[in-house]
Every structure is written in structure tokens, then in C-alpha cells.
What we know:
Blueprint (H helix, E strand, L loop, with lengths): L2 E4 L7 E2 L6 E7 L9 E7 L4 E6 L3 E15 L2 E5 L3 E5 L5 E17 L12 E2 L6 E2 L13 E3 L25 E7 L9 E7 L9 E4 L4 E8 L2 E5 L2 E5 L4 E4 L5 E4 L6 E8 L11 H5 L9
Parallel strand pairs: 7-11
Antiparallel strand pairs: 1-19, 2-3, 3-4, 4-9, 5-9, 5-10, 6-7, 6-8, 6-9, 8-12, 13-14, 14-21, 15-20, 16-19, 16-21, 17-18, 17-20
The chain binds fe (ii) ion (FE2).
Amino acid sequence: MAYHISRAAEREWIDVKDVPGLRQALMVGEVHGSHHMEISLYELAPGATLGWNRCPFEESWFVTGGNGRAALAGLEYDLGAGDYGVAPVGMPHSLSAGDQGLSWFSVRAPKPPTFDGARSHISAEPLSGEYLGRPSENDPRHRFVGHYSESTDVVPFGDLSMPGYHGPNIKNIGIRMMVDQLLGAQHHTTFIASIAGRSGPGRAAKVHYHPFEEIYYFIGGGMRGWIDGNEEVTQTGDLVWVSTDGTHGFVNERDEPARWIEVQSPVPPTSDAFFFPDDWRSLPEAGETR
Ligand SMILES: [Fe+2]
């Protein structure tokens, strides 16, 4: 299977073993065929903590609700909705919930290892750090964190322009990068994407594929998509995962913009990151003129 859809209405939550107060809804992982990412929603009860860990993968978070505290690299941050951050491979880090509890969208990349004797978390000694308040890209002391504001981080819609692709085949889209190599990630990128309302066929994302896995987690609106040739309609709260050989394209038929969190892993190459089957099918063979 080259794709998987985690529907908001069918999502299952489990209590995480050995971490009191932590609940997980796995949306995509090895069980769905992914080699490069594990994507979950987590909820941590008020006052609970994950403790200090180092991991053989990088781990990023995007806070969806509540309050809490993140600590890594000798720095401590308060957390609230819209804050994001990444713990690079092997870096001790800690997340704790405040009095409202803490909810976040989580990425682990590559997916946690499962070979015989593999370990996903190695406990680490607590490290006190400099307290810096809420994450901000404007403060040069801040590392591995940032903040996305729905009201002020409005990106104009246009043709897609990001590392690996500046072409015209994905239109009416706005991208706001969050977790990337600038932030300290090497194995995945996470960004907010939005496609303008009434972006029908030829005005949104043409069918394409790429040499990395990708998810779309819809946080506003929804889309009509063609995934491996199947028509799929998604609503807010749904997540779509596509594998490296999965073709996908979509349109936004609604009046309002569609918004989603997008994750790509491995990090896309710096050029030739997108392939559009129609472009390749239309090329002439030797001696043929079209
Ligand atoms: Fe894609």
C-alpha cells in the first residue's frame, strides 16, 4: 500500500506504557508501511512529564493546545498553542505539561528502530537550563524552537517555491516553514501549507510523486484528492500519508482555504524533488516530434 488515511472520526487513543498521564493516537508508522516517519497526536495530563530522554531519531513537536515546558540544549521554554521545536538525534530533551495539560502533533524521523535489541528512548540526567519564555524566531538566543501564529503568519498564495521545486505545477499555495535544516533537523521538514479556496483542477496540485514520504494533516478545510488513482475526500482532522512511489494530487473545491501541517521525510533533495507523470509522458522519443 503506497498510502494511508487516518480519519479523525476513527482515531484510537491508547495510554502509553511506562509514562503516567500520556496518551497517544498513532496516525502513521511502521504498521502502515512507513520507513521514515512516525506521526502521532499526544496528550499529557496536567502536571505530568515525559522526563529526560535521548533518542536514536529526531523528534519534533507542534503544540495544539494547553501549556507546558520544553527543555533541551541548556535552554528552557514555556509552551503554548502554535509553538514548535525539534530535538536532534541524541540530544537530551524533556517535555512537561502545565496546569492545563499539553497536546501536540509529534514527528519522529526516521521511524523508531525495531531490530532485535533496538532502543527508542534512553533515559538522560536532568539538565537545568536558561529560561527563555515562549519560543520566538526573533530572539537570537533561541535554538531548535519557533512559533507559528495563525493570525500573523499569513503567506500570499502563489506557485510553489521551496527547496527542490520552483515550478508552476502546484498553484495558489502558501508555505510557512517550521522544522527544517535551519532549525536543526536533518531527517524531516515540517511546514504549514494552505491552498486558496476555489482552486479546482489545474489551479491546485497536479498529480505528482517524489523520493520522500509525506503527510498532510488537515487543520482547516479539506480537499478532494487523487491518490494512487483513487478519489479520496478529506476533512479537518484527517491525515493522509503517501509513500515514495505514491502519486497524489488534489484540489480545494470549498470557498475557504484548506490548511494543513505537512511533513516530508527524508529531507527532499535540493533539486529534482518533485516528479509530474504528465510531464514525462509527454516527452518525445528519439526521432519523434510532438
Ligand atoms: Fe507531494
